[in-house]
């Protein structure tokens, strides 16, 4: 396991939490969220009830900053190569007008709200799907997630998880240059040759309490 973790540290752009971005202002973020009507879909506090809409409450600050920045610019290129692509017409439009400081404030607001996930879960009875150990090195789940820019998946909306997993899976196969979500890490998210059942992975993370036992919100 140690070598897997070392490989992931070298291969990904993950940073320990202590190196996270300068923090925005939660009260300003709350005002901006009201002003822009984000609550219509995500609920005022990011607890999002409608199916298919991601929960934002308690999500990592660094990840929220990245996600909104990706959605704002749609594509990030380096040496003429696309390293990030995130196409979603509604969210591209919502994020387009946000300034960098506003993104930091909104991320500060949502990340400091308590996360909302299933309660009274008997974690001992949750069956781990095949291949999930690797996912948990980066995302946490039964274990904690120490990476500042890697999202928590535990307790996330199931339909949202499944939709994003399908996008990232398609991206990892490199079959289509025009995938809606491209991230250079998707290639190492899934081990080659391993059978993944994306529905089972979405079921698993959605069923977990949003923090592993005894772990707070860093
Ligand atoms: C009309 C509904 C709607 C509104 C309004 C809306 N969102 Fe979203 N938001 C979505 C959907 C749907 C997604 C999932 C996008 C995808 O699949 O890539 C999303 C994704 C996101 C994400 C990425 C979450 C993740 O886990 O990657 C963030 C952050 C976000 N929205 C913040 C906001 C903010 C801030 C506002 C207001 C400025 C806002 N949204 C307004 C529907 C909406
Ligand atoms: C090397 C670390 C790493 C591994 C291993 C990994 N991921 Fe990810 N994953 C990430 C990062 C970083 C992101 C955010 C990408 C971005 O910024 O768009 C992400 C994004 C996601 C998302 C979208 C979350 C959201 O809120 O939009 C899902 C779903 C996901 N991963 C599922 C998985 C599953 C399931 C596995 C195991 C099969 C896995 N990941 C393995 C690092 C990893």
TrEMBL record:
Short name of one Pfam family: Cytochrom_C
Cytochrome c domain sequence ranges: 24-114
Extent of the signal sequence: 1-22
GO MF assignments: electron transfer activity; heme binding; metal ion binding
Protein origin, superkingdom: Bacteria
UniProt keyword annotations, A-Z: Electron transport, Heme, Iron, Metal-binding, Signal, Transport
PROSITE patterns: CYTC
PANTHER family noted in UniProt: CBB3-TYPE CYTOCHROME C OXIDASE SUBUNIT FIXP, CYTOCHROME C4
Protein name: C-type cytochrome
Biological source species: Pacificispira spongiicola
């Amino acid at each position: 396991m140690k070598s897997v973790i070392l490989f992931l540290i070298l291969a990904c752009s993950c940073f320990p939490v202590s190196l996270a971005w300068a923090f925005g202002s939660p009260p300003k973020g709350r005002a901006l969220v009201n002003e822009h009507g984000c609550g219509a879909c995500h609920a005022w506090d990011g607890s999002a009830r409608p199916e298919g809409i991601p929960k934002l409450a308690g999500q990592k600050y660094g990840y929220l900053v990245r996600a909104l920045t990706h959605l704002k610019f749609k594509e990030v290129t380096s040496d003429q190569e696309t390293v990030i692509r995130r196409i979603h017409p509604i969210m591209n439009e919502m994020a387009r007008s946000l300034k960098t400081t506003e993104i930091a404030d909104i991320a500060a607001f949502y990340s400091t709200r308590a996360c909302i996930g299933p309660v009274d879960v008997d974690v001992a009875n949750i069956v781990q799907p095949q291949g999930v150990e690797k996912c948990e090195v980066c995302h946490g789940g039964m274990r904690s997630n120490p990476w500042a820019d890697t999202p928590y998946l535990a307790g996330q909306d199931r339909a949202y998880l499944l939709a994003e997993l399908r996008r990232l899976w398609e991206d990892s196969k490199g079959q289509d240059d025009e995938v809606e979500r491209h991230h250079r890490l998707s290639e190492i998210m899934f081990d080659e040759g391993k059978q993944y059942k994306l529905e089972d992975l979405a079921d698993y993370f959605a069923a977990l309490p949003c923090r592993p036992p005894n772990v707070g919100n860093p």
